[in-house]
Design a protein that fits this description.
Layout (H helix, E strand, L loop, with lengths): L1 H15 L15 H4 L4 H8 L10 H14 L1 H11 L2 H5 L15 H5 L1 E7 L2 E6 L4 E4 L10 E4 L7 H4 L3 E3 L5 E4 H6 L2 H4 L4 H5 L2 E3 L14 E3 L9 H7 E10 L2 E10 L13 E11 L4 E13 L18 E5 L7 E8 L7 E11 L9 E12 L8
Parallel strand pairs: 3-4
Antiparallel strand pairs: 1-2, 5-6, 7-8, 9-10, 10-14, 11-12, 11-15, 12-13, 15-16
Helix pairs in contact: 4-5
Length: about 375
């Protein structure tokens, strides 16, 4: 009898979604591992996301330390507003608590009640506690209160961390405003459509409740570092042509799949179009086009590290990124005689270099195509 009572008590705790004496108190953020006790599939997806690694990622930590060293403690704290938003609610100025190091945890999004567009950028308004908010109208739960949130069906929910201006009002990250002016926005295509597609999974672990045939939003939320997302965003085609003793090459590059500029986010991100042309008579040529944002600091020097974008006096120099639905034709000429065979290689590469040097640099080649052009007049195979 005693064992049966104990099992019933444990079962009620699991069904309630609590973590053995850690209730979802008003004003207190719930750790994501507690959410994961009942929402296991969603928790597992989230753990693989950039949101979950937003604070602990070694690349971010290096950039964070670099910012603190070069720009000071106050400026480095700005980074935590997005990479560790639990700091304020957890009163964890020393960055010692577990909830701080889970980055963008479950309760940051599901306690969100508003995003205020003001000052240097959007501000998150959180109301943590027993009520969890989301985009499902008829959601029910035995573990906590639930509320339908129209905000969670809109791109605005993402703006709090994907739109930022520095203390001078200089726009640094403009992903949300890029989307807002796009054809995707006009057609009602939200950020969630591309970054939180539907997948089969258990909304609630079967140990709590069995619900057949479930689909949930993908909580891995792949972004710019995802090979699949890069493939979806940009298309490239090229047409070589011989004219006299020149090889003419038109490369068409188009942003067909992203509802924002490519690349977007921090200005340290770039997309490179690299061309290599070799000829059978020993000639070799290389050309490059760079798509990205460039800023200068107060002294006019071009910024190469993420930490410097938060300083005063920063100004935009150039913006060569591909806008939503934009297509460009890049034209190249190479002095290759008609008697020589030409070997053409075209590559697209995404890169993020947060500290400006080779350390911590992310580099992804997401398109590579080679083509051989026989001498003019040669018989085609």
């Amino acid at each position: 009898m005693r064992g049966r009572v104990l099992l019933l008590l444990l079962g009620s705790v699991v069904a309630a979604g609590l973590s053995f004496g850690k209730p979802m108190d008003k004003g207190r953020l719930t750790r994501s591992d507690i959410c994961g006790e009942c929402h296991r599939d969603i928790f597992d997806m989230w753990q693989r996301s950039a949101h979950a690694k937003a604070m602990e990622d070694p690349v971010f930590q290096d950039a964070f330390r670099d910012t603190r060293s070069k720009e000071g403690e106050a400026v480095s704290r700005v980074c935590l507003g997005c990479h560790a938003p639990a700091v304020e609610f957890a009163k964890d100025a020393e960055l010692e608590k577990k909830i701080t190091w889970e980055g963008i945890g479950c309760d940051i999004c599901h306690s969100l009640t508003a995003v205020r567009m003001e000052g240097t950028g959007p501000k998150l308004v959180l109301e943590p506690g027993p009520v969890k908010r989301g985009p499902i109208r008829d959601a029910v739960s035995t573990g906590h209160d639930v509320a339908y949130s129209e905000l969670h069906t809109q791109s605005l929910v993402c703006a709090g961390c994907h739109e930022f201006a520095n203390s001078d009002g200089t726009a640094i990250m403009t992903t949300y405003s890029e989307w807002k002016g796009s054809e995707s926005a006009k057609q009602g295509k939200t950020c969630q459509l591309c970054h939180m597609g539907r997948t089969k999974a258990n909304v609630v672990d079967p140990k709590v409740k069995r619900v057949p045939g479930q689909e949930v939003n993908l909580h891995e939320m792949p972004g710019g570092h995802s090979l699949d997302q890069l493939h979806k965003a940009l298309t490239v085609s090229f047409q070589p042509e011989r004219k006299g003793d020149e090889l003419l090459l038109d490369v068409r590059i188009a942003n067909r799949g992203a509802g924002h500029a490519v690349p977007t986010g921090m200005p340290g991100r770039r997309v490179f179009l690299d061309l290599t042309v070799r000829s059978s008579d020993g000639r070799s040529f290389e050309e490059r086009k760079v798509y990205g944002k460039s800023f200068a600091d107060a002294s006019g020097k071009t910024i190469t590290r993420d930490s410097a974008y938060f300083a005063k006096g920063v100004k935009l120099e150039t913006d060569s990124r591909l806008r939503p639905d934009e297509q460009r034709v890049e034209r190249f000429r190479f002095p290759i005689p008609t008697s020589a065979t030409a070997f053409v290689s075209v590559k697209l590469r995404y890169e993020h270099s947060p500290t400006g040097g080779p350390e911590n640099r992310t580099s992804i080649t997401f398109l590579s195509e080679d083509r051989t052009l026989p001498p003019s007049g040669a018989a085609k195979p």
